[in-house]
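Technical note accompanying the year-one report. For the benefit of new consortium partners, we illustrate the data format agreed upon in the data management plan: each record pairs a sequence with a structure-token string. No post-processing was applied to the example shown here.
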Amino acid sequence: MLLAERHGGVVINADSAQVYADLRILSARPSAEEEASVPHRLFGHVDGADDYSAARWAAEARAAIAEAHKHGQLPILVGGTGMYLRTLVDGIAPVPEIQPHVRAHVRALAVADAHAELAELDPEAAGRLRASDTTRVARALEVVRSTGHGIAHWQAHRVGGIGESVEVLGLVMLPDRAWLHARTDTRFEAMLEAGAAEEVRTLAARTDVGANAPVRRAIGVAEIAGWLDGHYDRAEAVARAQAATRQYAKRQYTWFRRQPPEAWGRTTETDTYALLGQFERKLSI
């Protein structure tokens, strides 16, 4: 936000949970006041019932970047969903549209059954994916069942990336893990105080949002729902959500340390003004 204020920027969301209108508090979206202070795009613009994807986000992000450039503004992508960023920069695999009956079959399966079927049809993908990864296992299975080719076949060819037409200057934050865990623990408590439980109650009451909808898989939704349903108390819900957040942060930490281009740079810095200086040096502004 400070970078946007100083240099005529537009903040563009690259977080897969913060796209949903249903989860302002639980996804830690910017507040209404923050969104009003500088231009923000792609925050809270998706209904929880929508079948949103990385491909749709990348198309919307390309449009937001082009619009910013058109008006002489600096597009500032922020967020931790690596698949979103990779799809935007490198492009997307040209997988044909999945046949509806195949998608319905796959989504009706328990993740263990889906992984077992994937192991038969695409052993390479099954060996690479965690057996509990509902989203990626289902995607790999529906691709191989619908197209006859494993997902790696399609991922070898990518189209639509901005990497060759737009200069992307990245900086990966890799702060001290103890500092990070303390902040995520504190933040979840603050989310509950701000009304996260009511968000989950409202989402749980929606009959048009499927049980496996991505919005329901956001960290904290299942944990708070278990508390609201009486399966365990508030303290247990907090402990479960904090543990899930730390596990996710560990996976993010590993991915962002290894996957983005080395030229993006990595920093352990957490001071706002020091980070601002690092970006300004990258941008030569």
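Partners are asked to follow this layout when depositing records. The mean pLDDT is 94.
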